[in-house]
Design brief:
Length: 128
Amino acid sequence: MWEKQRLTSTEWEVCECLWESAPLTLTQIANRLTERTGWTRSTGETLVRRMAEKGLLRWEQGAKARLYYPVMDREDAVARETKGFLQKVFGGSVGLLVNTMAQREELSQEEIGQLYEALKKLEEKNHG
């Protein structure tokens, strides 16, 4: 079900808690959200329940409480969000994104090195 959905910023916060250390109980998630965001416990609990209803979280019955897990892993969620951002802002063009950042001189030497490494690996994969 989540394949067709992108996470809202509040849903992302819940998933971050679970990506860090799943499974968690409803109370544990709500407490972590309160620490991270300042939300009330009831807000966190409501959000978790709604996400489970939408199919964004799954749960298993534990000894005393339900244990919640994220349905998608962080890498898949990041890829989905990145693709959505690229499509929305740059018409899907990675080149346009990189050119924009380069023209504004907003890429550090470390980031430039990371781009070179990623492109080198991709080229080796496609030609090797």
